[in-house]
Design a protein that fits this description.
The protein is α/β, with parallel strands linked by helices and about 300 residues long. It has helices spanning about 15-20, 30-35, 40-55, 75-85, 95-100, 110-120, 135-140, 145-150, 170-175, 210-220, 245-260, 265-280, 280-305; strands at about 10, 25-30, 60-65, 70, 90, 105-110, 125, 155-160, 180-185, 205, 230. Strands 1, 2, 3, 4, 5, 6, 7, 8, 9, 10 and 11 form an eleven-stranded mixed β-sheet that branches. Helix 5 links the parallel strand 5 (about 90) and strand 6 (about 105-110). It catalyses: D-ribose 5-phosphate + uracil = psi-UMP + H2O. One of its GO terms (molecular function) is hydrolase activity, acting on glycosyl bonds. Its cofactor is Mn(2+).
């Protein structure tokens, strides 16, 4: 993939060398570090995820914006900044030009990470769960910017589906409309983020990282709209959140949000926080299990993609 380097988009020396050599590289988002986990566990997890990529033989590229510059691959000091610096913003793709102009710092969401990774020439990105269409969307039209970015960005995203607080069926329909390919990794149903399955079927199933890489080559050979490939990798059943507990606490969270009038950008952190508290931290552990599995699979796909 063609890469772009500007004063506002700077790969680390390690990432730049890997890309120049055609070596496998995996992009990682930084929002989970700055906003998704408490200190000091957030920094421990950030190092762990990079370690998973390295153990598989690939190069990790954690992405964040520091002082207005998009950093593709962070050194230890930069990783620590993302983990402990107060007041870091959460940046979507639309926020990147503003952050650059104002020399702001922030962690990148799925949309921003996908965009920046693709601009840098990285094809594979591992995350936990995507954003999507919110429940009650027929009334409020609340939809994550992730979907729009994935509909016009050539990136392969390994994820455990979309966050289960969302309208999963509507999200899958939206992805179909926008031409985004979804393939279940060793599953016939779309993962449920905290849950092994959402119950919603997927049209395509793949069994190996090599098959994912072959689909990516097919995308390039056929041309057309620059859309993403979503590799939906479920959290193992023995690591998932108890489904009955999940459904009960989520129902309570939705009722609380309605009662308190929580809407817009505040709804996702409200519901996710409620789930963490209501499950005694079990939802967080299921989330981390999913991210670890997705990171390992993304590294294997990157290796397959780097082979001619």
């Amino acid at each position: 993939m063609h890469s772009t380097t500007t004063p506002l988009l700077q790969p680390s020396d390690e990432v730049a060398a890997a890309l120049a050599a055609g070596a496998p590289v995996v992009a990682l988002e930084s929002t989970i570090i700055s906003h998704g986990l408490p200190q000091p566990r957030n920094l421990e997890v950030a190092r762990e995820l990079e370690g998973i990529v390295r153990e598989a033989g690939a190069v990790p590229a954690t992405i964040a914006v520091l002082d207005g510059v998009a950093r593709i691959g962070l050194d230890e000091a930069q990783l620590e900044r993302i983990a402990i610096e107060p007041g870091l913003r959460k940046l979507g793709q639309r926020d990147l030009p503003v952050a650059a102009a104002l020399k702001a710092s922030g962690a990148t969401t799925v949309s921003a990470t996908s965009f920046l990774a693709a601009r840098a020439g990285i094809r594979i990105f591992a995350t936990g769960g995507l954003g999507g269409v919110h429940r009650g969307w027929t009334e409020e039209q609340d939809e994550s910017a992730d979907l729009d970015t994935l509909a016009r960005t050539r990136i392969t995203v390994v994820c455990a589906g979309v966050k289960s607080i969302l309208d999963v069926r509507a999200t899958l329909q939206r992805l179909e409309t926008r031409g985004v390919t979804v393939a279940g990794y060793r599953t016939d149903t779309f993962p449920g983020f905290y849950l092994h399955s959402s119950g919603e079927p997927v049209d395509w199933r793949i069994e190996t990282p090599e098959q994912a890489a072959a689909i990516m080559r097919g995308q390039d050979a056929l041309g057309g709209q620059e859309t993403a490939l979503i590799v939906a990798n479920p959290v193992p059943e023995d690591r998932q959140l108890d489904p009955a507990l999940h459904d009960r606490v989520l129902a309570e969270a939705l009722a609380a949000a309605d009662r308190d009038g929580v809407t817009g950008q505040a709804i996702t952190p409200f519901l996710l926080g409620y789930l963490v508290r209501g499950t005694g931290g079990a939802s967080l552990e299921a989330n981390l299990a999913a991210v670890r599995g997705n990171t390992a699979l993304a590294a294997r796909i990157a290796l397959a993609w780097s082979r001619p």
